[in-house]
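Weekly puzzle thread! Below is a chain. First person to post its structure in token form gets bragging rights.
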Amino acid sequence: MNKKHRELVRCLSLVSQLGITMLTPVILCTLLGVWLDNRFSTYFTLPLLIMGILAGARSAYLLAKKAVRPEEDEEREDD
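Winning reply:
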């Protein structure tokens, strides 16, 4: 596998990881909020949705930061 092909596969896997990392907490918190609303006649969906968005954004940020960090180290070594 040449270097260009390997880099393309790496980028595609990172994009899919970011998507899954962002969507999972949003979907889980929303489903939990809907279930709690139906079960106890409350209004938890919106706060849990916001919490899921924040948790997903934080997780995606940490994943992207971790993925970019090795590239920065390689650039420093080249200089």
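Puzzle host: Confirmed. Bonus trivia for everyone else. DSSP finds two helices and no strands in the chain.
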